[in-house]
Amino acid sequence: MQGLKKDWALETPPRICVLEDYQGAEARWCPGCGDHAVLSAVQRVARDLQLPPEKTVVVSGIGCSSRFPHYMKTYGFHGLHGRALPVAEGVRARRPDLEIFVVTGDGDCCAIGTAHWIHSIRYNMRMTVLLLDNQIYGLTKAQTSPTTRLSEKSNTHPRGSFFVPIDPISVVLGIANVSFVAQTVDWNPPHLYETILAAHRHQGLSFVRIYQRCPHYTAHVYAGAQQDPSKILLMTHPEGIVLPEAASRMFKNQVVHDPSDLNEARRLAAAGDGVLPIGLFYRNPQALRYDEVSSQGLGLTPSQKVAAINKALDRFMI
Ligand code: SF4
Predict the structure, then answer these.
(1) Nearest to residue 108, comparing CAs of 69, 60, 72?
(2) What does the mean pLDDT of the chain come to?
(3) Model's pTM, two decimal places?
């Protein structure tokens, strides 16, 4: 309310953020790159949830997708290779009020960042982690990544990769205290949007693996599933990712999967029967959250902290 006299007072309208309030610099990804679709979905989710831009942080590591913070008009941290998650955990540990998105790639997360990845799932601090998986190191011009398929040719394996790829979903479903695991594709905007929306509403660490097209280096990898929806298995459940009816109808293969069933989630992730499962594999809202502990502190005043540090240091006096 503004003004000195009550009957003259003006009611200040509530602030409404529009899409432009989340749009940063012009995205420089290749034309047709799936990163554009993910950026657009995150901006729509932020707008629809009315996340205050000044209270939103996007943290990334290194790689094509890690340019994400530059393209959001929020706070951002374009960090070191594989180190997005510890940075985001540091932010969360001291700022429970912020909205945190982490954007990482298959090289960033599943190779150099693996140790951080595994323990961040276990710590379960509230943040939305998007793994944009294009099965290649794109920024450094086509080297084999941990998710590159067997026999795929790259600059590091010109005769084809001879490593069996890791499946990030199976990895995450095997980590203690996991609390939200979903999978989606960048070329289906309704499913992408609903998945990121559900992930951001989750009170804990939500992990979303996004099959992301890289038309420059791995255009053929997802072409089959993109052109033929019968190669996708849609996991449905009232507690899962709920699609509008019209969007759901385009998936011929559907399975009802209860996201509280961890064993079935693991079975679906490992099935590997030629279809690509999308939807919510697992959710456990009761999983312990480390940020609920760390943001509390020890309840000490500054002088009590100084006294405690001095007491601890006194043990080393000689
Ligand atoms: Fe996207 Fe691939 Fe281009 Fe990188 S190289 S911006 S992942 S299309």
Answers:
(1) 60
(2) 94
(3) 0.91
